[in-house]
Every structure is written in C-alpha cells, then in structure tokens.
Write a structure and sequence with these properties.
By secondary structure, the protein is α+β, with helices and mostly antiparallel strands. The chain has one domain: Roll (Ubiquitin-like (UB roll)), CATH 3.10.20.30. Helices cover 15% and strands 30% of the residues.
Length: 101
C-alpha cells in the first residue's frame, strides 16, 4: 500500500487544483516509502492532480517563486525542501503569496 499524503491549497492555489482546498491522496507503489521525496511528489501532482496552467505551479523541478510550502506546519526550507523524505500521513500545504490586483 502506498503512502497517504494530505494536500492543502490556498491563496489561489486551489484554483489550479479543481477548486479543491484539501485533497488526500494515496501515492502509487512507484513511490518507495523511506525514499520518496518532495522532488518526486511535485511532478506527480502536476501530472495527476493539476487541472490547469502547470506553469503557475512549477518552474523547472520545483514550485514557482511566490508559493509557500509547509510540511506538517513547518516551512519546507527547515525540512530540506525538495529532498524532504515523504512519510505516511504527512500534510503538505501550498499557499500562493502572489495576488493579482
């Protein structure tokens, strides 16, 4: 059985993910527990969950500038960013800090 990850989107990020503010996903078996990282999760999210405009979510192999990422309520910079190893029942939050006006 794959890892279960809780995803949350706000600040406009939910618009890119079918207007869903929260989504719990069970990752496929290709995500090896104790080895799968956030760097693996982001392209999977882009390919499987994103409903529109991938360029507003990712730039290269990471999130675009202006997107705050929290891992279990901690800034991802404190957790190793892309190298963070996913754990079952993690909560990962994506918050856009850029707003039109």
């Amino acid at each position: 059985m794959g890892l279960t990850i809780h995803l949350q989107f706000s600040g406009g990020m939910e618009l890119l993910f079918n207007n869903e503010k929260e989504k719990t996903v069970t990752l496929p078996d290709t995500f090896t527990p104790a080895l799968a990282t956030l760097k693996d999760l982001l392209p999977w999210m882009r390919d499987n969950l994103l409903s529109e405009r991938a360029e507003l979510f990712m730039q290269g192999d990471t999130v675009r500038p202006g997107i705050l990422v929290l891992i279990n309520d901690a800034d991802w910079e404190l957790e190793g960013e892309l190298e963070y190893v996913l754990k079952d029942d993690d909560t990962i939050v994506f918050i856009s800090t850029l707003h039109g006006g």
